[in-house]
Amino acid sequence: MSTASTKRARKKARAQARQQAERSEPAPDAPAWRDALELPESVWLYAGLAILLVAAILRIYALEMKPMHHDEGVNGFFLGNLLRQGIYKYDPANYHGPTLYYLTLPSVALLGLNTFAVRLVTALFGVATVGLMLYLRRYIGTVGALAAAALVAVSPGAVYYSRYFIHETLFVFCTVALVVAALRYRETGEALHLLLASAFTALMFATKETAFISIGVLILATAVAWGWVYATRRSELDTAGRNRGKSYVGKKFNGGETSAGAGAWRERFGNPVQVGLLLGAALALFVFVNILFYSSFFTNAKGVNDALETFKVWTKTGTSDFHKKDFNTYFWWLVQEELPVLVLATIGSAAALFARRKNRFAIFAGAWAFGTWLAYSLIPYKTPWLMLSFTVPMAVAGGHAVQLAYDWSQRAKVLRALTVGMLGFALAACVYQTVVLNFLEYDNDQYPYVYAHTRREYVQMMREVERLSERAGTGRKTAIAIATPDYWPMPWYLRDNSGVAYDQNVLPSYDANKTPIVIGKDDEKLPKLRSTLGTAYRQVGNLYPLRPGVNLVLFARADLVER
Question: What is the pTM of this model?
Answer without folding.
Answer: 0.88
